[in-house]
From TrEMBL:
Site description Important for acyl-CoA specificity, residues in chain: 111
Organism, scientific name: Ureibacillus yapensis
EC class: transferase
EC number(s) reported in the record: 2.3.1.31
Reaction equations catalysed: L-homoserine + acetyl-CoA = O-acetyl-L-homoserine + CoA
Family membership noted in the UniProt record: Belongs to the MetA family.
Residues the record lists as binding substrate: 163, 192, 249
Site feature: Important for substrate specificity: 192
UniProt entry keywords in alphabetical sequence: Acyltransferase, Amino-acid biosynthesis, Cytoplasm, Methionine biosynthesis, Transferase
The protein's name in its UniProt record: Homoserine O-acetyltransferase
Superkingdom to which the source organism belongs: Bacteria
PANTHER family to which the protein is assigned, alphabetical: HOMOSERINE O-SUCCINYLTRANSFERASE
Designated gene of the protein: metAA
């Protein structure tokens, strides 16, 4: 949260130059506080696991947050019960009259398909277009990031020679950007995907900036220059054992997959992996909710009280 200081305090200018988040007292006194309303379009097959992962990260801030889960109307998930979806999820028609402070679009197990071949692609496009007017800031994860880059910025994806799966080291291109405030110069994060996007295409696009990348896994954190779109090509939200579960699933299916790199102790799948990215996961979501949602969203938006609510 910001430091509240007297207006025109000389130290304020130095703090701003050092990218310390300060707010002058006259602005602080006029701020009205209400819960943030976040929409989560959950496209992951194991929805309940993804719900927990995202709620854990959004819940670890001083901000009060209401979360509404969204499901596609054009496709019914086979890995979660209908009663769960009926109880806890909305369809777009049920929420399109509302405005939200933030939206997350998750990954989806459709990355090897062309975007237009995905049976709910038109619905996703409609939601992304609606969000331009009705959502303050959007975060897109893995396939969601690729979908946003393709739809909003015309950057396509390409299939990798083999699955990118494991824990990879990343660097930050500009530590003064609020989204990566507090990040280490170098940190690790999980990836799990068969496709990627060109780092050159991202860097050469006039409306995008690359904030973090891996020499092995490629571009990782990408932000639109208007800061309303944040694309994360990996899975900082993953639990310690998520990649292990995916590896065991693929092996059971007989798929030719390699052991996730830099993941299992001594590269032994029988040993329990450790979560070495947790701190940066929490930091990314905290920075997004604070700087790009809470500090930017209008106060006067009208909301219907039909969300799951949790308090810190």
């Amino acid at each position: 949260m910001p430091i509240n200081i007297p207006k025109n305090l000389p130290a304020g200018e130095i703090l701003r130059e050092e990218k310390i988040f300060v707010m002058e007292e006259d602005r602080a006194q006029t701020q009205q506080i209400r819960p943030l309303n976040i929409l989560v379009l959950n496209l992951m097959p194991e929805k309940e696991k993804t719900e927990l992962q995202l709620l854990r990260l959004m819940g670890n801030t001083p901000l009060q947050t209401n979360v509404t889960f969204l499901n596609t109307a054009t496709y019914s998930s086979k890995n979660v019960s209908k009663s769960h979806l009926d109880s806890f999820y909305k369809t777009f028609d049920e929420i399109k009259h509302r405005r939200f402070d933030g939206m997350i679009i998750t990954g989806a197990p459709v990355e090897r398909m062309e975007f237009e071949e995905v049976n709910y692609w038109e619905e996703i496009v409609g939601i992304m277009d609606w969000a331009k007017v009705n959502v303050t800031s959007c975060m897109y994860i893995c396939w969601g990031a690729q979908a946003a880059l393709y739809h909003h910025f015309g950057i396509g994806k390409f299939e990798l020679p083999k699955k990118c799966s494991g824990i990879y080291s990343h660097v930050i291109t500009d530590l003064t950007v609020d989204l990566v405030r507090g990040f280490s110069d170098e940190y690790v994060a999980p990836h799990s995907r068969h496709t990627s996007v060109s780092i050159e295409d991202v860097c050469n696009h006039s409306d995008l900036r690359l904030l973090s990348y891996s020499d092995e896994a490629g571009p990782f954190i990408i932000q639109s220059k208007d800061t309303r779109h944040i694309m994360i090509t990996g899975h900082l939200e993953y639990d310690a054992t998520t990649l292990a579960d995916e590896y065991s699933r693929d092996v059971a299916k007989g798929e030719p997959v390699d052991i996730p790199v830099n993941y299992f102790p001594e590269n032994d799948p029988s040993k329990t992996p450790k979560n070495t990215w947790r701190a940066h996961s929490h930091l990314l979501f905290y920075n997004w909710l604070n700087y790009y949602v809470y500090q930017e969203t209008p106060y006067e938006w009208h909301y219907v009280e039909d969300t799951i609510e949790f308090h810190i």
